[in-house]
Design goal:
Enzyme class: isomerase
CATH superfamily of the largest domain: Pseudouridine synthase
Shape: elongated
Biased composition (Low complexity): 14-29
CATH architecture of the largest domain: 2-Layer Sandwich
Keywords: Isomerase, RNA-binding
Order of helices and strands: EEEHHEEEEEHEHEEEEEEHEHEEEH
Distance between the termini: 76 Å
CATH class of the largest domain: Alpha Beta
GO molecular function: catalytic activity, acting on RNA; pseudouridine synthase activity; RNA binding
Number of domains: 3
Number of strands: 19
Domain Pseudouridine synthase RsuA/RluA-like: 118-274
Largest sheet: 9 strands, mixed
Length: 352
């Protein structure tokens, strides 16, 4: 066996011996991979293990392959739920790769940080994270597919590298995984709520308390399918918690820092609306899709006045994680974007 056919890869920090064979598999021409299970991953489901060990496939694709008999442990075909033990030998027939991901597009990206495992991107407002109904091009995943050759596949072929999301009109820092092992680690940190996220927002109205915690469950809106709402004791509701701290108050606007403890859809937007101060220029929850300077300052409008804001004034300012490989805490910061910075400057200038 050549050196190119044998190597080591890391699964959740453990070195795992990997062998690729040239012989055709019984299902076709797919290659087979072999692994020796280290002690550090003993007790892991085989589909989860393979997701971390083999890039290019989502967990669902690998689970399906295992279900169809592609995985053997010590010569015995196993199910996706099989839990591996130290020293066992795994042989897995790798399925043919699926090439139905986003179309690569040469869209510039503002990279805040990059290493072998993940990327921190400063996402602009107006960019959808991944393709969805009505938004098939110009997405973050299309830009990522153009600029990076290798991204994690756990989220499926349509969402390469995507660990978490930001709404289309929310700007700021978002993390993207290059490998499945790093994706799993980062996703676990989000699930365990150890990730610290900080947002900046301009809220319509004056928030009275200097700081407070909003505890209100969020579920699907009863009438509007694209909205969320505060819904007590409803089947779609999940607990939601957001801490906020006022940075600066103006006559009709509050500049506020927010730290969500949970990650519900539209959480900050729904919570600020719940306390009577929706995000400025929030079409869904604030009633305005654009805002002129005269509207911002509550003055008589001038003729043909251009808008000063054309999206919700919400920015993902900072995120702190534990580095998946070194274990050290790391913080990534995305400076406030020009439109929000300009609106804030105008408020500060005209408040004196």
């Amino acid at each position: 066996m050549s050196k190119e056919q044998r190597g080591e890869l890391s699964v959740d920090g453990a070195a795992v011996e990997s062998t690729a064979t040239d012989s055709a598999a019984s299902e076709g021409s797919s290659a087979a991979r072999e692994f020796i299970v280290p002690e550090s991953v003993a007790g892991t489901r085989i589909d989860i293990f393979l997701t971390a060990a083999i890039d290019g496939y989502s967990r669902e694709q690998l689970r399906r392959a295992v279900h169809e008999g592609a995985a053997e442990v010590d010569g015995r075909v196993v199910r996706p739920s099989f839990k591996i033990r130290t020293g066992q030998q795994i042989r897995f027939v790798v399925p043919e790769p699926v090439a139905d991901g986003p179309l690569p597009e040469n869209i510039p990206l503002d990279i805040l940080y990059e290493d072998d495992g993940f990327i921190a991107v400063n996402k602009p407002a107006g960019m959808v994270v991944h393709p969805a109904r009505g938004n098939w091009s110009g997405t973050l995943t299309s830009a990522l597919a153009y600029h990076f050759q290798s991204l994690s596949d756990i989220g499926g072929p349509a969402r390469p590298g995507i660990v978490h999301r930001l709404d289309r009109d929310t700007s700021g820092v978002i993390l993207v995984a290059k490998t499945n092992a790093v994706h799993i680690d980062l996703a676990a940190q989000f699930a365990e709520r150890t990730v610290e996220k900080e947002y900046l927002a301009l809220a319509a109205g004056r928030i009275d308390h200097d700081r407070d915690q909003i505890e209100a469950p969020i579920g699907r809106h009863p009438f509007q399918r694209d909205k969320m709402a505060i819904r007590e004791n409803h089947s779609t509701s999940k607990p939601a918690s957001t801490f906020y701290e006022v940075i600066e108050r103006f006559a009709t606007v509050t500049f506020v820092r927010l730290r969500p403890k949970t990650g519900r859809t539209h959480q900050i937007r729904v919570h600020l609306d719940h306390i009577g101060t929706p995000v400025l220029c929030d079409r869904l929850y604030g009633g305005h899709a654009t805002l002129t300077l005269s509207q911002l300052l509550k003055r008589r409008p001038t003729e043909d006045e251009p808008p000063i804001l054309q999206r919700q004034a919400l920015h993902a300012y900072q995120i702190t994680i534990r580095h998946p490989q070194s274990g050290q805490p790391m913080t990534f910061t995305a400076p406030l974007h020009d439109d929000m910075q300009n609106a804030l400057k105008q408020l500060q200038t005209h408040s004196t």
